[in-house]
Amino acid sequence: MVRFVFRQSPRNICAGVLVDDDTVVTVAHCVNGFAANQMDVIVGDHDIGRVDPGEELVPVSGLEISRNYVPGTRGNDFAIVKLARKIRFTTTKQPACLPDPSIPILPANNPNSQCFVAGWGVDESGRVSSQLRSAPVQLMNLSTCNTILNSLGGNVTHVPSDMICTDTSATRTDACLFDDGGALTCRDANSRFTLLGLVSEYTCGSLPAVYTRVDNYTSAVLNRL
């Protein structure tokens, strides 16, 4: 996990995920409206209240937002961020595993299924967490997610197929404010934790959270490594 620092908007808190030594993925709504030279990435951070051993601030050299992204709508909420220099991997700085289409994620009804969401967002006390935290979540069928969200009426729009939902009804734990761009990792059939999604939309555990599906963009990421 990494944190973004926006030079003109220091209170804007967003996260991203390191997938290579110079590549980060995040959600488009975090970086939309900013130029590459207006942001930096903090790598190796755990506690935002101090400088952790090995923590480093890295300038951003390039930014590519999904061409189909439309601000304020669901879908295509994905961006690739290139760093100005390569990161040296350590025990506290490691890339996430991208989804492998030949290795399925374990479904929610599998007893070995495990998923976690991570970030520095608001915790149960209503405060921004100073430490990187993770919480267990459970995947939800997209049709069920749409049924629940559409039942609310109003301006709720359909969750498209390039996104995924998590069920918060059992644990009441999920992404919250300032977790945007955070990682949703799930165990695959080889027992490896894989980056399945990025936090896109949340209600802090009261309703299904919505994530950008990373596997829809894996080839785009690999072409830019």
TrEMBL record:
<keyword id="KW-1015">Disulfide bond</keyword>
<keyword id="KW-0732">Signal</keyword>
<keyword id="KW-0325">Glycoprotein</keyword>
<dbReference type="InterPro" id="IPR043504">
    <property type="entry name" value="Peptidase_S1_PA_chymotrypsin"/>
</dbReference>
<dbReference type="Pfam" id="PF00089">
    <property type="entry name" value="Trypsin"/>
</dbReference>
<keyword id="KW-0964">Secreted</keyword>
<dbReference type="InterPro" id="IPR001254">
    <property type="entry name" value="Trypsin_dom"/>
</dbReference>
<dbReference type="InterPro" id="IPR009003">
    <property type="entry name" value="Peptidase_S1_PA"/>
</dbReference>
<dbReference type="InterPro" id="IPR001314">
    <property type="entry name" value="Peptidase_S1A"/>
</dbReference>
<feature type="domain" description="Peptidase S1">
    <location>
        <begin position="1"/>
        <end position="225"/>
    </location>
</feature>
<dbReference type="GO" id="GO:0006508">
    <property type="term" value="P:proteolysis"/>
</dbReference>
<dbReference type="GO" id="GO:0005576">
    <property type="term" value="C:extracellular region"/>
</dbReference>
<dbReference type="GO" id="GO:0004252">
    <property type="term" value="F:serine-type endopeptidase activity"/>
</dbReference>
<protein>
    <recommendedName>
        <fullName>Peptidase S1 domain-containing protein</fullName>
    </recommendedName>
</protein>
